[in-house]
C-alpha cells in the first residue's frame, strides 16, 4: 500500500566528546576549499563554509549541514572539521542523507542545543543518484554545541549520519543527465545525476562513463537497457585535446549480433551523455577495433525531447470546441491539427500531438453520463477519424498521449484518468484497459508523461509519485513507482517541465494556500513558480517542457485550471479570456470562458 509514514520526533544522538573541548584540540581550518581547476560549472557555486565562518549557533548548524557536500570519499573529513579530536567516535554510514529543513534551526532555552525539523528525501550515492527512502519520513534532529573562548563553536553531539541539506545540494552540485536506450531502442531516456560542481573538467568523462557502466537508476530499470555486462573503460580517458575526446571501451560493450547498429546506438548514447563537455569529435574504440570518429549533430535525433520547439502552439476549449490562443509576434490562424468542424464539437477536454509523419488527437466529448473519449490519428496535414474508447467509467479527466512512434502508428497509445483510476487506450480506438501496479491504492488525480514516453509522474491520493511505463504484449504497464516528497501537501496536479524537473500544484505547508512549484525529478530541489494563487485548488496544469539543448532550465509558460476557469502563469496569474483566442473576434456567448488549456506536443 502506497502510504506516507510520518515519523515521530526523533532525537538520535551520538556522543562525540565531553561537555567541552579539551585544551590543545587540533581542529583544522578547512580554508577556502580546494582549487576548482578548470571547472565545467558556471562559476555560481558557493564558497566552502568552515567551522570558523560564524559564531551564530543556528547558522553554525546550517553550515554543518552543508559540510558533507563535495568529494564523496572525503565527506567525513569535512564534517569532522566542525568537531574536536574526540570526534573519532563519529562513524556514520558513507552515503549522506539528503534532508529538507523545515523553517530555521531552533535554539533551546540554554542555547547549547539546536533542533532541526526535517524531511528525509533520500541518500546520495557515489553514482550521483538520490535514492528516496522506502517511505518519506519527517522528524527532528538535535545537535549539541559548545563554545570555547578564543576558538569558537564546536559540535559536541550530532545524529549518527552524514547529513546534507538541500541548500548544500543546490550550492555545491550540478545536475548532469546521462541516457539509456529504451527497451525497444527507439529513443533515449534521461537519468538525472548530481556531479560535484568543482570537479575538474578532465575528470568528468571518467565519472560519467562510470555512471553509465554502473547502470540506470533503480526506478528506470524496467524501461531501459543497461550497457552490456562486462563493459568497462580500457585505461584512463585522456583529457580533451585538439577538440577531441578519445574513449576506449572493452569488446563486451558491443554484442556480436547486429554489431554495427549497436555501435551506432552506443556512440549516440555517449554523445548525449557527454554533450556538455567542450569537444567536437568523439574518438571511440571498441576492444581492438579501429578507432571510429564521430562529429556533427545527427545524434540529437535519438532523444525525443530534442524535437521540442521554443514557442509551442497553445489551445483551450471554448464553447465546446478546441480553439487556438493568440501568440505574440507571430501569426496564429485558428486551426487545430487533425481536427475540423465535423469532429471538433461538443468537447470538454483534449490532447493533440504531432510527430514528423502523423497527428494524434484525443477528445473528451459529451457530458454527464454521455461523456466519451474519442481518439484518432491521421497523416500530417490531414483530418483524423475519431473512434470511441469503450469501457471507461464516468469522471473522465484529461487524456495524455504517451507513445507516438515516428513514421508509423503501430503501438501508439495514451493514458487517461477516469473515476480516480488510470486507464490506457490505443490510437485505433477500442476497449480501455485499467493500468495497475503492485500496492497501488488511492485515487489518481493527475498523470503526466515525459517527452521520452517512458517516465511518468502521478498524483495519487494527494501524494506525488514517479514511475516508468513499460511496453508489453497487451499494452502499457506501470512499474518502478516511488513516492516523492515535494514541499507541498495535497498535491493535485503535475507536469514535466524539462528532462529533470516537474511543476506541481498543491497546498503550501506553511500558509495553507494554493501554490505552484518547480521541483527536481527527485523532489530534492525546488523553485517557486507561483507561491500563492489563492484558495481554489488547481485541478489541472500543463507546461511545455524545455528542449535539453536550450538554455531554459524549465518549461515555457504555465497554464492551469481552477474549476471551469483557465489561467496563464506568468509572474502572476492571468485569466484566459475570450479575447485571448485566435481567429476572428465574435461576441462571447454568455457564461462561456476558455478552459482546459493544453500545448500542442
From TrEMBL:
Residues of the signal peptide: none
Pfam families: Gmad1
Domain (Lipoprotein LpqB C-terminal): residue spans on this chain: 325-523
Region of interest called Disordered, as start-end residue ranges on this chain: 25-47, 579-601
Protein name as annotated: Lipoprotein LpqB C-terminal domain-containing protein
Organism this protein belongs to: Actinoplanes hulinensis
Amino acid at each position: 500500500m502506497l502510504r506516507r509514514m510520518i515519523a515521530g520526533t526523533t532525537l538520535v544522538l551520538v556522543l562525540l566528546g565531553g561537555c567541552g573541548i579539551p585544551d590543545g584540540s587540533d581542529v583544522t581550518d578547512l580554508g577556502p576549499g580546494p582549487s576548482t581547476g578548470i571547472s565545467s560549472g558556471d562559476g555560481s557555486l558557493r564558497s566552502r563554509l568552515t567551522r570558523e565562518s560564524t559564531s551564530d549557533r543556528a547558522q553554525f548548524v546550517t553550515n554543518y549541514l552543508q559540510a558533507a557536500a563535495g568529494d564523496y570519499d572525503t565527506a567525513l573529513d569535512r564534517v569532522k572539521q566542525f568537531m574536536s579530536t574526540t570526534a573519532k567516535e563519529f562513524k556514520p554510514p558513507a552515503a549522506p542523507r539528503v534532508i529538507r529543513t523545515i523553517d530555521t534551526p531552533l535554539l533551546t532555552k540554554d542555547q547549547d542545543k539546536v533542533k532541526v525539523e526535517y524531511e528525509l528525501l533520500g541518500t546520495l550515492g557515489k553514482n550521483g543518484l538520490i535514492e528516496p527512502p522506502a517511505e518519506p519520513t519527517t522528524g527532528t534532529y538535535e545537535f549539541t554545541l559548545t563554545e570555547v573562548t578564543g576558538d569558537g563553536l564546536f559540535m559536541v553531539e550530532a545524529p549518527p549520519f552524514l547529513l546534507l541539506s538541500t541548500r548544500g545540494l543546490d550550492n555545491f552540485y550540478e545536475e548532469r543527465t546521462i541516457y539509456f536506450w529504451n527497451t525497444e531502442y527507439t529513443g533515449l531516456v534521461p537519468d538525472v545525476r548530481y556531479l560535484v560542481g568543482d570537479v575538474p573538467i578532465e575528470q568528468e568523462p571518467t565519472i560519467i562513463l562510470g555512471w553509465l557502466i554502473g547502470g540506470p537508476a533503480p526506478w528506470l530499470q524496467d524501461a531501459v537497457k543497461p550497457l552490456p555486462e562486462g563493459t568497462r573503460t580500457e585505461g584512463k580517458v585522456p583529457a580533451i585535446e585538439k577538440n577531441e575526446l578519445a574513449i576506449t571501451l572493452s569488446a563486451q560493450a558491443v554484442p556480436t549480433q547486429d554489431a554495427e547498429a549497436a555501435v551506432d546506438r552506443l556512440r549516440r548514447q555517449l554523445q548525449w551523455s557527454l554533450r556538455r563537455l567542450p569537444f567536437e569529435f568523439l574518438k571511440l574504440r571498441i576492444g581492438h577495433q579501429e578507432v571510429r570518429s564521430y562529429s556533427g549533430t545527427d545524434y540529437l535525433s535519438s532523444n525525443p525531447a530534442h524535437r521540442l520547439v521554443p514557442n509551442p502552439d497553445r489551445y483551450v476549449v471554448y464553447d465546446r470546441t478546441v480553439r487556438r490562443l493568440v501568440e505574440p509576434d507571430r501569426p496564429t490562424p485558428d486551426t487545430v491539427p487533425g481536427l475540423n468542424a465535423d469532429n471538433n464539437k461538443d468537447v470538454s477536454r483534449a490532447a493533440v500531438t504531432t510527430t514528423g509523419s502523423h497527428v494524434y488527437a484525443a477528445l473528451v466529448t459529451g457530458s454527464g453520463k454521455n461523456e466519451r473519449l474519442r481518439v484518432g490519428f491521421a497523416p500530417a496535414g490531414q483530418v483524423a477519424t475519431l473512434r470511441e474508447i469503450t469501457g471507461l467509467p464516468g469522471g473522465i479527466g484529461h487524456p495524455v498521449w504517451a507513445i507516438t512512434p515516428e513514421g508509423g502508428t503501430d503501438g501508439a497509445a495514451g493514458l487517461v484518468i477516469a473515476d480516480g483510476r488510470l486507464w490506457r487506450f490505443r490510437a485505433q480506438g477500442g476497449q480501455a484497459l485499467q493500468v495497475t501496479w503492485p500496492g497501488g491504492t488511492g485515487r489518481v488525480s493527475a498523470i503526466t508523461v515525459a517527452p521520452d514516453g517512458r517516465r511518468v509522474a502521478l498524483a495519487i491520493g494527494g501524494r506525488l509519485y514517479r514511475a516508468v511505463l513499460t511496453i508489453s504484449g497487451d499494452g502499457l504497464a506501470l512499474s518502478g513507482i516511488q513516492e516523492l516528497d515535494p514541499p507541498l501537501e495535497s498535491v493535485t496536479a503535475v507536469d514535466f517541465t524539462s528532462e529533470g524537473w516537474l511543476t506541481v500544484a498543491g497546498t503550501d505547508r506553511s500558509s495553507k494556500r494554493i501554490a505552484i512549484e518547480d521541483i527536481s525529478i527527485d523532489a530534492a530541489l525546488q523553485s517557486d513558480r507561483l507561491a500563492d494563487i489563492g484558495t481554489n485548488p488547481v485541478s489541472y496544469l500543463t507546461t511545455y517542457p524545455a528542449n535539453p539543448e536550450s538554455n531554459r532550465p524549465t518549461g515555457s509558460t504555465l497554464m492551469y485550471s481552477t474549476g471551469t476557469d483557465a489561467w496563464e502563469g506568468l509572474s502572476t496569474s492571468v485569466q484566459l479570456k475570450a479575447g485571448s483566442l485566435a481567429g476572428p473576434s465574435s461576441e462571447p456567448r454568455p457564461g462561456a470562458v476558455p478552459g482546459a488549456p493544453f500545448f500542442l506536443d
